[in-house]
Amino acid sequence: FSVLRLLQSWVRIREKVARIDVAEKNETVEKRELMLKEEGQEYAQVLRMLGNGRLEAQCFDGKKRMAHIRGKLRKRVWVNQGDIILIGLRDFQDEKADVILKYNSDEARKLKSMGQLPDNIQINEEAGVEEDIPFEFADIPSDEESDASSEEAGAAGRDVDIDDI
Description:
3 helices; alpha+beta; 22% strand; five-stranded mixed barrel; 28% helix
């Protein structure tokens, strides 16, 4: 009886969390002022995530840099592969930088139309990048499935008792 109550309460909690998640997704995103780069900053596109708040970014000045997601953005703004970001350059380390801001797709399109970003970049429409998989999964029956299907074909004319299985 206690297991049943536990399951029922767990289901209620999951439904509540699902309603909250849907409500958060349906909220309109607040419009913020478009932040342009200043001296010591550069636009970049995320090439790959390295973990531990680090990423590799292709800056639009032609250099690849290792960037660190600063604490204010960490766990609040999810940076994904292919996102357009604004990074702060370091005076003492040219190959390293700090992520200052992540642009959403509308802001990135606006920057591109203003001429701030090169015309040859692709801006992600969704949050994540879909990776092309060069192969397809096929349904190949295993030995157990083929044995079961042959038994089912032979047992089509007779009734099967659950105890016989």
